[in-house]
User: Which sequence fits this backbone?
């Protein structure tokens, strides 16, 4: 079945990708050491303009380590977070339960917080975190001017400024700035390899040398030194080679699709800033979700997983992301799919 983001990979397809990779014959890695680890860390550090980078098998682990180390350096357990950020909403309170940190949550669920919100905090704070984009709010991005103002606030108040950049690759097109210039606003940056770059998994935490060196022991404490991580390493490097430069095209395609869908009665879409966006549809939640499977079979394509409820009982939302597989799906097919979806006759 065709998909809008990435085709679902099978074990065989993953093995085939690695078998044909130019990185296959490099010496194997062991416990976070090896040629491929160094190559990936150095490459991403250069892309982000940071002194040093550290490979992690999982993004959640990378961010927990970043928050913990920064809190120890700044000698405060208080960290600023958005209530709809991945760290708060999707990680089972790990930053509190595992790291003993206390979150100061700022902002409305549907919008990123800004410098004015941050300036209103009167408590001592160790870390200010910003997620680019704020995925749970509909892939919304903080404006450049607000990022700069928060950078200034963090420096003035001796606060570590951290970016949850799980989708930074997909965000740079909006800012029209190099990745290094965006990352330069932050003391540390986490990026993911399995989302926009399509790797099996893996993540990088980048920052200055002193900070990253302090993170290494915490990576070990969090079980992050895998015996070998070659599938993640090879597919991450493949993704940087093959997909990174294509992402701006996916952003433009998402905007094209959004504009087309917004012309349909009962469908509302705001022009996206990244390759992901929310589509709002009028109708009953259960009935809309019941139509997805037969429509997927009719069109031989899957555009999203399911609808979720909004605050308005008669309006439901679904998340759509555009990736390399979208080349096999026309915008007209997507429009036709939604027209069938909302047709109540």
Assistant:
């Amino acid at each position: 079945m065709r998909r809008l983001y990435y085709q679902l990979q099978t074990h065989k397809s993953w093995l085939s990708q690695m078998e044909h990779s130019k990185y296959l014959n490099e010496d194997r890695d062991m416990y976070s050491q090896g040629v491929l680890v160094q190559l990936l860390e150095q490459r991403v550090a250069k892309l982000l303009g940071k002194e040093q980078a550290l490979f992690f098998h999982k993004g959640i682990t990378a961010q927990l380590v970043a928050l913990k180390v920064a809190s120890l350096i700044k000698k405060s357990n208080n960290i600023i977070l958005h209530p709809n950020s991945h760290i708060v909403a999707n990680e089972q309170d790990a930053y509190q339960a595992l790291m003993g940190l206390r979150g100061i949550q700022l902002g409305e669920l549907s919008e990123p917080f800004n410098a004015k919100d941050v300036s209103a905090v009167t408590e001592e704070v160790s870390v200010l975190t910003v997620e680019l984009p704020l995925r749970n709010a509909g892939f919304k991005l903080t404006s450049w001017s607000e990022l700069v103002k928060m950078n200034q606030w963090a420096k003035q108040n001796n606060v570590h400024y951290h970016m949850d950049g799980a989708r930074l690759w997909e965000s740079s097109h909006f800012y029209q700035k190099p990745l290094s210039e965006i990352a330069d606003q932050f003391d540390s940056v986490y990026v993911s390899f399995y989302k926009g770059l399509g790797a099996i998994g893996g993540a990088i935490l980048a920052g200055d040398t002193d900070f990253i060196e302090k993170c290494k022991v915490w990576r070990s404490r969090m079980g992050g030194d895998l015996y070998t991580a070659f599938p993640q390493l090879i597919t991450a490097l493949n993704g940087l080679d093959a997909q990174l430069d294509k992402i701006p095209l996916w952003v433009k395609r998402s905007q094209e699709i959004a504009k087309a869908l917004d012309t349909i009665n009962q469908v509302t879409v705001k022009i996206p800033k990244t390759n992901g966006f929310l589509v709002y549809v009028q109708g009953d939640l259960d009935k809309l979700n019941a139509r997805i499977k037969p429509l997927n079979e009719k069109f031989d394509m899957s555009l999203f997983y399911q609808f979720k409820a909004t605050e308005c009982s008669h309006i439901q939302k679904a998340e759509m992301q555009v990736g390399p597989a979208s080349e096999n799906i026309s915008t007209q097919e997507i429009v036709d799919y939604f027209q069938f979806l909302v047709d109540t006759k």
In short: DSSP finds 14 helices and 13 strands in the chain. The first strand starts at residue 2 and ends at 3.
